[in-house]
Amino acid sequence: MNKIIVLIGAPGAGKGTQARLLQERRGIPQISTGDMFREMKTLETPLAREVQEIMASGKLISDDITYRIVLERTSREDCKNGYILDGYPRTAVQAEQLEQLAAEQSMEIQAIEVDVPREELMRRLTGRRSCPVCGEIYNIYSKPPKAEGRCDHHTEAELVHRADDNEASVATRLATYDEQTKPLIDYYERSSRLAKVSGSGELEEIYSQLDKLI
Ligand code: AMP
Fold this sequence. Notes:
Elements: E1 2-8, H1 15-26, E2 30-32, H2 33-39, H3 46-57, H4 63-74, E3 82-86, H5 92-104, E4 107-115, H6 118-127, E5 128-130, E6 137-139, H7 167-181, H8 183-190, E7 194-198, H9 203-213
Parallel strand pairs: 1-3, 1-4, 2-3, 4-7
Antiparallel strand pairs: 5-6
Adenosine monophosphate is lined by residues 11, 33-34, 37, 54-55, 58-61, 66, 87-88, 90, 94, 164, 173.
């Protein structure tokens, strides 16, 4: 049976970096709800503006809006053999909606927790930079680009610091994670669909743990 891989972890745990690597090396599509919401920035609609405001504050977008974009994206041809969800589900309602979607798509769900100690998360989040062209993620402390402030693949592009990677939004995002998303780890564990990797350490080491599990 084809699989939906669900990566669960606090903001800054490195889910996005790993999901992108899995996409690159294993050809499994990476679906990041956060990336999709960020892409809406260029749209001049009331909904797009509302989404940007909520994101900047560190709160969650409504379950129904989020479900709509997940449904639309995962219904495309490239997802038919399975895909990786990075940043979804984040609430109990979303987990329930995903069960239905998985059943409709005849896929099974495999959840993987990416665990990183809280002290490390702050540094990772505040040091994070990304390329506005290709989305490649860097970190000024742990994964600096070859030339300061420039993407390795798009040297014309200046790396950007996410609007919600400031201390106030990070605190809200971590609290939201503890309250709403962390309980999903137990949820998947109870149904024997949870594996766990340590998100601390070298990028390649973490990748190899994930690669073996998937
Ligand atoms: P991320 O890039 O995954 O950290 O997501 C950035 C922001 O996008 C979050 O802080 C939320 O505002 C929004 N977002 C991303 N995924 C979801 C989701 N599954 N449910 C609700 N809001 C989300």
